[in-house]
Amino acid sequence: MISNSVNTNVGAMIALQNLNATNMELSETQSRINTGKKVSSAKDNGAIWAIAQSQRASSQSLNAVKDSLDRGRSTIDVAIAAGESVSDLLLQMKEKALAASDATLDANSRTALNEDFKALRDQIAKVVSNADFNGTNLLKTGATAIAALANADGTSKITVNAEVMALGGSIVTVAAAGSIGTATLATAMIATVNTSITNSSSALARLGTKSKAYESHITFVGKLQDSLDAGVGNLVDADLAKESAKLQALQTKQQLGVQALSIANTSSQSLLSLFR
């Protein structure tokens, strides 16, 4: 080892190496404090960064899932609101049909009841045709099932079948031209309306169950997204209390390193005393 040389100052070299190492640690700590992350890029820790990116992708994809579920739930809720109106109209129609089945009614009373019945019947058609949300109607003739996304990969969906409540269908069996103009027609209509009430109640129960399923899945997706975000945080977030303490230590170490380098740099000057 060269101990007394003006060409090679080993002490200064070692002090500089240590100071550079301290500066690198200090820069890393300051970056963690500034970003709040211990892994902010792939060069910090490639494996952890890749895992975190994958989880971020899943979490962000769940936003699309929640949007899809929200649209689906709104579509179902609109259908339920319209279906309940249809059911209420059917109850009123039954009342009119039962009153018109009385053979002792005079012509004027029967005509008035029939007009009321037809107005209620036509209102059902209007309610069903207006039960749209975002261009989707689960109650009108020709309606098809809807399917909302259920997972971040799009491989699972929650399907809701249409419940067609148009007049003359399998649920509302009252014909579009149905009337209670005679006691015979009114008597027959009572049974038809009763069937329609039963069918519509069953259809509404199915829609209600699906709406509840959507609501439950939205809650689950929200919790899943929170768990993924927390997991990413555990992987990449910095412990700022720890980093703050480390910052203080490194700053002190840096100052000492500068002093050590200064001392090492002055050691060669002591050789001048040998030539005086």
Total domains = 2
Categorize the overall geometry. rod-shaped
CATH class of the largest domain: Mainly Alpha
* Largest sheet geometry: 2 strands, antiparallel
How many strands?
2
Oligomer: single chain
Our estimate of the beta-strand percent is under 5%
Named at the architecture level, the CATH assignment of the largest domain is Up-down Bundle
Q: Residue-averaged pLDDT, rounded?
A: 88
Helix content: 55-70%
pLDDT < 50 runs, ≥5 residues: none
Instruction: Provide the structure class.
Output: mainly alpha
Q: Kindly report how far apart the N and C termini lie.
A: 25 Å
Descriptive report:
This protein is an all-alpha fold and 276 residues long. The chain folds into 2 domains: 10-36 and 240-275; 62-235, f41 fragment of flagellin, N-terminal domain (Up-down Bundle), CATH 1.20.1330.10. The chain is 67% helix and 3% strand. The chain has helices spanning 10-35, 46-100, 107-129, 183-236, 240-267; strands spanning 146-149, 157-160. The chain has a two-stranded antiparallel sheet. It is rod-shaped, with a radius of gyration of 39 Å. The model has no long low-confidence stretch (mean pLDDT 88).
